[in-house]
Amino acid sequence: MRPKSIIILVTLLFFYGCQKDTESDPEPEDCAGIINGSSVCGCTDSTAFNYNSSATYDDGSCQTYISNGQFFLSFNGVNSYVDLGDMLSVGSYTKTAWVKRETGDNHNNIISGDEGHALWAPATFDYKLSSGHAPYNAVQDTDPLEVGVWYFISVTYDLTSGTMALYKDGIQVDETTGVSAPGESAKTYIGRFGNGSYWSGSIDEAGIWDRALSSTEIEQLYNMGNGIIARKSDTEDEDLYSEAKGYWKMDEGAGEILSDASGHGNTGSVNGANWDTCDDCGCTDADACNYNESATIDNESCTYIQQSCETCEDGIILSNDFDGDSICNTDDNDDDNDGVADVDDSDPLDNTICSDNDEDGCDDCSSGTYDLSNDGADDDGDGICNDCGVDTSFSRVLPGTAGYDIVRSSNCSYVISGSDGRTILLKIDELGNEIWSRSYSNITGNHWGNSVSQTNDGGYIIGANQSTIIKTDSIGLLQWYSKLPYSYPYYVEDVIQTFEGDYIVVGAIGNDPGTGGHSQKGQAFILRMSEGGGVQWVKRYGISNTPNDSFWGVVQADDGGFVLAGEKLQDRNFEFYDHFWVVKTDGNGDIQWSLELGGNLWDEALDIVKLSDDSYILAGKKSLSSSNIDMWVMRISSSGSVLWQTNHGNSNNDTATSLTVSENEDIVAVVGYTRSSSGNPFKYRIWGVDVATGQVIWNRIHGGDQEDKAYGVVESYDQGFNIVGRSYSFGSDRVNWLVKTNSSGNIY
């Protein structure tokens, strides 16, 4: 039910030979399956909890670093702390952290050892920031840390010169020379000393380096902010993070593991400290729509009016151009563009409601425009006219360059997601006539509407490919969008709303240039997002640093978990091929079972639907040879057992991209593209498959004389099928082509 992003993988195959003196004993394989190899297996993801810097082959064991938002740790001053293990050497170092002190008569250790070194603000020093190596006030600020105020504090020590320097908010406040090396500490803590002396307050973004950072670097770290404090410059250098011996962002929001964002695997153990969020953070710009006069800390959340028809209400930017015709509602006599003047419209902001002048029990605008000939009786009072489901078939060109997914909407209508260079959303009636269209070209970056589904509030959620998710209202107007907060692209292939009302996003991770050591590419991901678009968690699966693992579709199981369809790259002796991949997770995205099928070529599961008995039907492609690909359809049980499978095609290329199940669950319609021989153009293809047996009952081909590929399908109200995709047969460039068939896949 999505477009399938076309990823062209060019793989260099390395050939080598070896001679064996005897064939009596097979030569040993290493953990990567390479004969006589010396691979070191482990997690190669430098952002993961369990990153192994010695590993040369990723074994899929990575436990991903998760940022769940703007969090920090709060310490009670009695018994809460973080154990970092043996972190600090007896040589040069730097310690940094964002801190906010609370009241309490205690010693307030921030980053200290079990002996030998301390960074603290004790009551005995009037809460002045201090540091040293016994004595522990070799350097000291002249002013105390005020209660309830965030500070960026740092101390550097250079072993060669014995110089120790103390900084607050990026400014040096003290320096001394001749400081002896710190004593050997078996432990380093955040929030305590070895004998206790606990911190009372909050700590965020703590870091340790094994050299003395310069004053310029300290200032740079201060200007980066902490996610709670607004970033004060655009000079962020992730290399400072990756160079750290350990860097703890404290954005997990839950759990007892403090992950190391430096990529060196120095995780901490949280003991008694509480995860907290910022109560006094918000937009501090009085010119912004969402200005928060109570906020004392700017968290970069400010939003501003950019369009002439936008207004600010209760901190939210509202569009006052409901029909998107560039005429503000105050000057528009027909706000919903249904053909009925607002003064005569019973609901001027809903184009399916206006009146019932003919008193037939069905709204005159039920088709999306005022049309008495296209409404009718509504005997059951469901808002859908009795005559919904006109027995028809046709094909026509729609706005845009491609249609990637289609869903049924209310009042005999359908909604299509696609592209015109950026993401578009179209609503059409039963005859393919446009009711409204929306373009989201104001959203930055590359994106196109891979998937669309209707949400429980009547709106739509769109998976818009490159790290972009779009939420609209019932008439396609933008409510919010989310750009996933990662430096490398997350190719979003499918988004669904869960039973709980939040969202699940799946897809593949693209290439990261490796900034700061965070090299990522090729893994499949599942991500959970709040109703407002915030990331709750993300899990990555598959082989890291190979360019082809992906999840293409997702459905929610009856138990609240998720079943995902995709492809998993296999690597044996540098020969790469894909497996048809099905994964079942629990509600937290942790794998419960995984099914891999296929041979030594390219097999993919590209879409999935759920049946009422909690079984699943998947469709994709099966490679019979390097030049012969069949569509592949299978049904599996809730436990992952294959109930039936079938493949079908001609002698060249038949690929299934999407499927839909009829309302009574007797037929599954599978669409994709086909060609008879290499060099010939692709055509739309639809197969009708018996749900009970997997038998192909009928198949049809539609298209012109140029290349046509189908990407999405939905059962129509008359029990036929609506197919969308892209075509080069009906214009000088590619177009969004809709095909409406009858129940047997024909156009008559």
Using brief descriptors, characterize the structure shown:
748 residues; mainly beta; Jelly Rolls; 8-stranded antiparallel beta sheet; 40% strand; globular
Description:
The chain is mostly beta strands and 748 residues long. It has a domain at 71-277: Jelly Rolls, CATH 2.60.120.200. Helix content is 2%, strand content 40%. It contains 2 helices and 51 strands. Strands 3, 5, 10, 11, 12, 14, 15 and 18 form an 8-stranded antiparallel sheet that branches. A hairpin with a 2-residue loop joins strand 21 (310-313) and strand 22. The two termini are 25 Å apart. Mean pLDDT is 84; it is low at 4-24, 228-237 and 512-520.
Please report the total strand number as a whole number.
51
In the CATH hierarchy, the third-tier topology of the domain at 71-277 is known as: Jelly Rolls
**Number of helical segments?**
2
> Biggest sheet, open or closed, and with what strands and sense?
8 strands, antiparallel
Binned, the helix content reads: under 10%
Secondary structural class = mainly beta
CATH level 1 name of the domain at 71-277: Mainly Beta
Distance between the amino and carboxyl termini: 25 Å
Shape label: globular
Low-pLDDT runs: 4-24, 228-237, 512-520
Going by CATH, the architecture of the domain at 71-277 would be Sandwich
Quick check: average pLDDT?
84
